[in-house]
Specification:
With about 300 residues, the chain is mainly beta. The protein is built from three helices and 17 strands. The radius of gyration is 21 Å and the shape is globular.
Amino acid sequence: MTVRVASLFLLTFCLHVTNALAQTITEEETPEITFALPIDCTPGENCFIQNYVDVDPSRRWQDYMCGRLTYNRHKGTDIRLPSMKEMEAGVAVLAAADGRVKGVRNGEEDGLYINGDHQAVSGKECGNGIIITHENGWETQYCHLKKNSVRVQRGQKVKAGTPIASVGLSGASEFTHLHFEVRHNGSTIDPFTGATTLDGCNVPAVSLWTVAARAFLNYSPSGVINQGVATSIPNNMAIERGQFTDLKLDKDSPMLLYFVRIYGLHPGDREELTLTDPDGVELAHDSKIHKGSTKAQYFKYVGKKRPN
C-alpha cells in the first residue's frame, strides 16, 4: 500500500514578524547604476536570501533592516538554493549589469568546505568566481560557482542578464548558493540601500536593484527553505543533499517523520509542528518557544514510529 504523502501532514509554523523598521527608499533619486537579479530563480519560491551585507562596522552584525540575517564582515548577498538537487540540475548565474569580465576562476571542486576540507579552500574562499567591471568604478563579484560552469573569459564584454556560470558549492561555502557582491571604487556597497557598510542600518536609501528585481527581493526575516517526509531521523547534511526529495512511504516504513528547514529563527518565535492522518487524527505534535540565539539555519522534525 502506498501512502499519499500530500494527505499526511499539516504544518503550522509561526515565523518571526518584524516591527516597523522598513527602510526609506527615495524613489525620486536615480541611482548611477542598477543591477538585475544575478540568478535565474524566483526568490521566495525556489531560492532564498540567506544572508545580506553586514552594515555594522563593529564586531557585531546587522543587515540593512537592522535584522540578523548576516554575519560579521559579510560583504555580499547570499542567494541559496533549497538543496544540492537544484545545483545538480543547473541554475544559471546571470550578469547583473553590462560590463567587462575582469577575472575568472573555474576549476575548483564543489563541496570541499562542507565536507570538512577547509585547508583546501584557504586563499580561495570565493571558490570558482567571476569579477565584472562596470562604468565609473563599479564592480560586481560572483562566488561559489559550480566547477567548470564558467561561460565567460577575461576581457569579454557581457550584457545584463547574460548567463555567465551556474550556482555551485565551491570555496568556503556551507550550502549551495550564489554570493553576489557589489563594490564602488573598492568600497563594499549594499545594493539594497546604495550605502556603504559604514552607514549602518535602516538608513534613507536608494535601491540599486532594477524595478523588475525589486519585485522579487522583499525582505523576509524568516522563511521555509524546504520541507518533506522521511522514514528515518534526518540530519541537516542529508536534507542539503536532497536525500528525501523522492522518498516513497508504504505500510512497512519503520517510522513517519515530517521535517522543515528554515532560515532566520529568532528568540521568541514559536515552533509548532503537527502531523495528522488522512482523517485528521493527530499522530504527533510539538510546540515550543525558541529561547536561544538567532539561527541562520534551523531544522526540526516531528513523527511517529510504525505501530506493531
